[in-house]
Write a sequence for this structure.
């Protein structure tokens, strides 16, 4: 008898728990959707790769079923997914008022609990201003010639090889440049390979958060631990032997840490350095790879880009002199191409926030404490916003705002958290494109596929054969390449 009663109580308890999971409390009407299985939610569907340029199937299927705003559950957390341009705009503009930056615990574990994305208010603004010290317009003006030199040297090296895997090659190029600016890192002189730790980190960044030896997520955390150990060792070395002349961002951070009235802590400084090293090279190398692929597949676009950059050379008094800031700012079509590349590529397809209070939008209520995921691909690839959205068409930007974020363009975020590295990314892309289209030809040789994940896009296996234009013209008379 008692056994039957106990069983009945367990069944009632489980039934009630399941009911509450599938029907969350809300002081209004929740957006439509499914919470999936208890605890697991719809996480497995969310993490499924997407081998197309189009909106991820997880999102696209639910838009058809529920509309532009729907609810789900990811890694045990209730989430409202927004593909609505108006709601996305409110989310970005109401930072600190209605919403605040938030990421799942697995992301926080990976990027650090004191990372800049998890900080708010004055502390976030303080760190943002510090980063602008490195990536602001005045610093980029001084960096222009170095960026061009690095691109030219690497392209020359790649042209001497049979072929290069473009994503890996550009990632190494940008990582070495960025690490030099941040921490004076020289891979040839260092006893440890800092880049290898980030490779392990990236491979498990967007994976199911299971920290068990052998899983991608575990390897990701191990990569972070090793990279952080190296950074902390460098910090101790700088403290033991301070430099008389400040020459990199690490010196600047150390100076801030040593100030008696500074609000900067060592944990925040280390997490900031880690995030900057990752973000500054990984996303840019992805964008360059996608741009080169799209250019080769669209000869008309390549011709227009080449004409713009050859015109810059023709208008110089000295054709061998380097790029000037005025020439860089004159690259109108190049900036259109960059915007079109990042719109189509959707390198960061998900941006997370958290509702600070119950928020009513249209007929729905987003409960306080719920996570909100802005989904840029669904906006960037919506035919109501962009005619023939899957077409690579830089000319569409002739009639559109190219300077920042808008309701229909959020490749670099928006609002107060608009990416501070945007100008640095555009500079590196524009300079690299200038160097390659004015001096080289290239072709894709074997392999190559797009594999999208919920957090990043990975162009895999894009091997390119690069040839100097003058050299190719000479070879074509005797032994043209097929």
């Amino acid at each position: 008898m008692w056994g039957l009663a106990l069983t009945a109580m367990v069944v009632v308890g489980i039934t009630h728990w399941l009911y509450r999971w599938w029907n969350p409390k809300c002081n209004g009407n929740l957006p439509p959707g499914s919470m999936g299985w208890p605890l697991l939610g719809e996480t497995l569907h969310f993490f499924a790769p997407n081998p197309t340029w189009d909106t991820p199937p997880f999102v696209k299927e639910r838009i058809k079923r529920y509309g532009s705003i729907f609810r789900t559950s990811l890694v045990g957390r209730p989430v409202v997914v927004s593909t609505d341009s108006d709601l996305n705009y409110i989310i970005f503009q109401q930072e600190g008022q209605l919403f605040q930056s938030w990421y799942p615990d697995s992301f926080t574990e990976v990027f650090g609990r004191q990372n800049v994305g998890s900080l708010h208010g004055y502390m976030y603004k303080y760190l943002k201003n510090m980063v602008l010290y490195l990536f602001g317009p005045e610093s980029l003006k001084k960096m222009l010639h170095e960026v061009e030199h690095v691109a030219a040297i690497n392209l020359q090296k790649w042209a001497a090889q049979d072929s290069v895997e473009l994503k890996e090659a550009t990632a190494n190029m940008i990582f070495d440049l960025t690490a030099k600016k941040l921490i004076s890192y020289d891979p040839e002189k260092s006893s440890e390979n800092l880049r290898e730790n980030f490779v392990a980190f990236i491979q498990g960044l967007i994976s199911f958060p299971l920290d068990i030896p052998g899983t991608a997520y575990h390897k990701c955390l191990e990569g972070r631990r090793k990279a952080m150990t190296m950074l902390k060792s460098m910090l101790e070395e700088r403290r033991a032997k301070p430099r008389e002349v400040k020459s990199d961002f690490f010196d600047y951070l150390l100076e801030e840490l040593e100030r008696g009235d500074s609000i900067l802590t060592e944990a925040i400084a280390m997490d900031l350095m880690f995030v900057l090293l990752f973000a500054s090279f990984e996303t840019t190398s992805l964008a360059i790879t996608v741009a080169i692929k799209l250019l080769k597949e669209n000869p008309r676009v390549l011709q227009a880009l080449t004409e713009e950059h050859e015109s810059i050379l023709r208008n110089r008094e000295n054709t061998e002199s380097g790029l000037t800031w005025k020439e860089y700012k004159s690259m109108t079509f190049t900036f259109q191409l960059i915007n079109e590349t990042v719109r189509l590529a959707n390198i960061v397809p998900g941006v997370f926030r958290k509702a600070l209070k119950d928020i009513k939008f249209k007929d729905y209520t987003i409960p306080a404490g719920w996570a909100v995921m802005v989904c840029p691909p669904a906006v960037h690839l919506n035919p109501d916003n962009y005619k023939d959205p899957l077409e690579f068409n830089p000319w569409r930007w002739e009639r559109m705002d190219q300077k920042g974020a808008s309701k229909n363009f959020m490749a670099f975020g928006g609002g107060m958290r608009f990416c501070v590295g945007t100008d640095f990314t555009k500079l590196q892309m524009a300079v690299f494109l200038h160097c390659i289209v004015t001096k080289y030809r290239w072709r894709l040789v074997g392999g190559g596929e797009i594999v999208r994940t919920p957090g990043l896009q990975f162009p895999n296996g894009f091997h390119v054969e690069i040839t100097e234009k003058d050299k190719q013209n000479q070879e074509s008379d005797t032994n043209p390449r097929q």
The first helix runs from residue 2 to 22. The chain has 18 helices and twelve strands.
